[in-house]
Amino acid sequence: MKLIEEANKQAMARILEGEPKLIDIVPARDVLKGLKERMVLHAGPPITWDKMCGPMRGAVAGAIVFEGWASDLDAATELAASGGIEFHPNHHFGAVGPMTGMTTVSMPLFVVENTRFSNRAYCAINEGLGKVMRFGGNDASVLARLAWLRDVFGPVLAKAIRARGGIELKSIIARGLSMGDEMHQRNLACSSVFLREVGPSMARTSTDNAVLADCIAFIAQNDQFFLNIAMAMGKAMTDPAKGIRGSTVVTAMCRNGTDFGVRVSGLGDQWFTAPVEMPEGLYFAGYSEKDANPDMGDSAIVETIGLGGFAMAASPAVAGFIGAGAPSSAGNFTRAMGEITVGQNPEWTIAALDFAGVPTGIDVRLVVETGLAPIINTGIAHREPGIGQVGAGVVKAPMACFQQAVRAIAKDLGVS
User: Fold this and answer.
1) How many of the other CB atoms lie within 10 Å of CB of 170?
2) What CA dihedral angle connects 18, 101, 272 and 402, to 10 degrees?
3) Rg (CA), the chain
4) Per-position DSSP letters for 160-172, written without gaps between them
5) Which residue of 196, 201, 234, 341 has the smallest Cβ count within 10 Å?
6) What digits encode the pLDDT tens for the residues 53-62?
7) Would you say the CATH fold of 241-413 matches that of 19-233?
8) Which InterPro entries does the record match to this protein (predicted)?
9) Distance separating alpha carbons of residues 375 and 338, to the nearest angstrom
10) Topology of the domain comprising 241-413
11) Cβ partners under 8 Å of residue 141, min gap 6
12) Residue-wise pLDDT tens digits, 144-175
């Protein structure tokens, strides 16, 4: 249908023309319009407390204690269950968050501006490895790290970013792809390049050498640091593609541990949801699939711009790490995802595929026609609150979301 083809061409152009730039780190209350006290933003489509999975509930309780709305985890859980907390998706506030995706008023957020379209997107700072809130952690060590990010690290890095005039992100992605990253499970190269970009500015703007050393070490020791920046970048790039009537291009994919949600350009902010699937992958010593929670997180936004599972060919080591097969099979994932996308991104290329661009612009029609569901690289959380990450793997988006979206597009266009 010509209308759809033209609409998809326009949506794809808006995604590719985006010029994302990291410009600041700011407390959530200062940048998320409508965010208020006793409000918790979460990953995925809308969900109520009674339907939340274990790690999501654990993270919510931890966030409530962190903000001082309850004195301990038991009181926090009681407050959440009683209706004393408002829950909303990050996406409803222009933000994204990994795994549980907790965002509350005092948390510092990366600010990414798409200078081409003058829109912004936000994401919390990556907490690092080990027991963390994004995987449902909520003990004293988790809250102490969040406080350090808020009170020490965030201000130091924000000052350096502002003094540098911001950091262009597309070139970092291009270099990361050439160095073995796919920007979902492997962010080592991009995190290292980012540190190289911002490190001198941190040194020039810091007034305390000990604090500076701690902040640099935090980035250097966290291989996943860049993921959260890439997520805000992804949302900043896809948001301008929303609201193009007739377009079947996906502008958001996310999950909350219970439901998977998809948004499509031609239908604006409408959600199409289905039960989320279990990831398949490798588990840390002492854990197995019996311990795993269904998939969660807003991080699938990177797949909507051609990264993560769609760029697996750039990162063959990831295929083995997440249990997706031999490293030599990595290219098969990227080729398959090329069957369900509108085109390629010529700025982000993969050497192993003769410098073909990453497949970009998921088309819900092609997903339904081919039966190929988008592949998402993901971490695996323990199903019980407070334990954390137990593995990593891949997960398929549920086909029902895309079938619903196709029917809704057809109805909107008056096509039987």
Assistant:
1) 16
2) 70
3) 20
4) HHHHHT-EE-HHH
5) 196
6) 999 999 999 9
7) no
8) AllG-like, OXTCase_su_AllG_h-dom
9) 11
10) v583 fold (3.90.1700)
11) 131
12) 999 999 999 999 999 999 999 999 999 999 99
260 and 224 Cβ atoms separated by less than 8 Å: no
395: amino acid identity, one letter: V
The per-residue DSSP string of 125-140 comes to PP--SSS-GGGT--SH
Cβ contact 391:380 at 8 Å: yes
Residues 6+ apart with CB under 8 A from 288: none
In this structure, which CATH number among 1.10.287.3510, 3.90.1710.10, 3.30.360.10, 3.40.50.300 belongs to the domain 19-233?
3.90.1710.10
Residues 12, 28: Cα–Cα separation, whole Å: 30
Domain ranges of the chain: 19-233, 241-413
How many angstroms separate the CA atoms of 25 and 46, rounded? Answer: 26
In the 3-class helix/strand/coil scheme, how is 213-244 assigned residue by residue?
Answer: HHHHHHHHCCCCHHHHHHHHHHHHHHHHHCCC
Tokens of 260: 């998977």
Place of tokens 């997903």: 367
The CA distance from 252 to 234, in Å, is 9
Q: What angle do CA 408, 413, 414 make, to 5 degrees?
A: 95
Measured CA distances, 248 to 122, 227, 267, 354, 371 (Å): 25, 27, 9, 29, 16
